[in-house]
Amino acid sequence: MTDVSLPAPSPVLPAASAAPAAASLWRRVLRVGWMSVALGLTIELLLFALATTRGFPKLVPVVADLAQKVSWATIVCVGLAIGNTAGRRRSDRMGLLGLISAPVGFHVARAAHKGVGQALGLVAGAAAGSTFVVVTLKALEYGILGATVGGLGNRRGTPNLRVHLLTGAAVGVVFGGVIIAVLTRAAAQPPSAIDLVAKGINELLFPIGCSFVLWAAEALGTKIKE
User: Fold this and answer.
1) pTM for the full predicted model
2) Would you say residue 134 lies in a domain?
3) CB neighbour list of residue 168: distance below 8 Å, 6 or more residues apart
4) pLDDT along the chain (226 residues), means of 10
5) Residue 220 domain boundaries
6) Is 54 contained in some domain?
7) Is residue 17 in a domain?
């Protein structure tokens, strides 16, 4: 009798299974990237509108501030988006990346502001003495934001807009209030009411906006798959 042996099943290549996941992550990062740019631009437009109440502001500081906000929003939101992938450890990954990306984003945003300002002839002001405290607070803020959104936002497999926005608002109110208090105490002179409102817009809308960006990127990805 002839011995007929069946061909051995071909092994599953890790690279082949990892390719779709890498492509999905790359698409999510791209979506978060352009939405983060829109977030930074939106907040800068709000601050520009607020500044016009004291007269039309000069263009150079506005451009430097825009570079700062866009770079900050992009680095932090993209960092959180990288951790926002499927798996049991999503909350841990997003918390860790928020803890890392916030200080990186802070220093890159400051460097972008200084570089654009110097290129356009803007004289840089003195650095605040509370920088280390602010960086530490922001690292904790976005670490908690990432861990909370990762842990609560997708329990049923569907991105939850309300959870994202409420988390961003709660984190922004708590840490934003502390950061504004630290900056006010370190200022050479008491800030005006408009300055306080501008700081409030920065510290509150960025975590809310970043949470919205994360939700929108995931919701858009889910819709495209369908």
Assistant:
1) 0.84
2) yes
3) 145, 207, 208, 209, 210, 211, 212
4) 52 54 78 93 94 85 92 94 74 91 94 89 64 94 92 65 91 96 88 91 94 87 57
5) 27-225
6) yes
7) no
